[in-house]
Specification:
By secondary structure, this protein is an alpha+beta fold. Helix content is 26%, strand content 39%. It has 3 helices and 7 strands; from the N terminus they run E-H-E-E-E-H-E-H-E-E. It has a 7-stranded mixed beta sheet with strand order 1-2-3-4-5-7-6, sandwiched between helices. The protein is globular. It starts with a strand and ends with a strand. The relative contact order is 0.15.
Length: 144
């Protein structure tokens, strides 16, 4: 049975999560590994799925204040995409958000992920920013 785990403050697990983020979200655009992390790692909730002794899916929830959480750094290894792992990560992060008393989740979706998030009941709010002047993002919201 596939389970979603929370990284708690395990540096080794967190490094493997960042490695997956880098491979999926940064390397294809020749960006550095450092762009796959920030100063909020240890104050955020990092969810992941471990299969075949490697992390194959991950996502992060951060508390932005005023009852709003943000999902960031969603990534599923290319060999495992289309199997519902991303949905499992989102559901776990929403569960964690409720535990924290958050009432709204926001996220910045890449164009190729909009339909995925719509299926998870996120509402497209607006076209937002273009990462590296290359990748268009869209603000999406969901009330918990």
């Amino acid at each position: 049975m596939i389970q979603v785990e929370i990284a708690l403050s395990n540096q080794s697990v967190l490094e493997k999560i960042i490695d997956l983020r880098y491979e999926i979200l940064r390397k294809p655009w020749d960006k550095s590994r450092e762009t796959a992390t920030d100063d909020l790692e240890f104050s955020s909730v990092n969810a992941y799925i471990l299969l075949d002794k490697r992390i194959v899916a991950c996502g992060r929830l951060q508390d932005n204040g005023m009852g709003v959480g943000q999902i960031r750094y969603m990534a599923v290894h290319t060999d495992y995409q289309g199997n519902g792992l991303g949905k499992m990560i989102v559901l776990k992060l929403e569960e964690e958000a409720r535990k924290l008393g958050l009432v709204t989740i926001e996220l910045q979706a890449r164009e190729n992920a909009i339909e995925f998030y719509k299926r998870q009941k996120y509402i497209l709010h607006e076209k937002s920013f273009k990462l590296w002047d290359i990748i268009q993002h869209y603000l999406m919201l969901k009330k918990l």
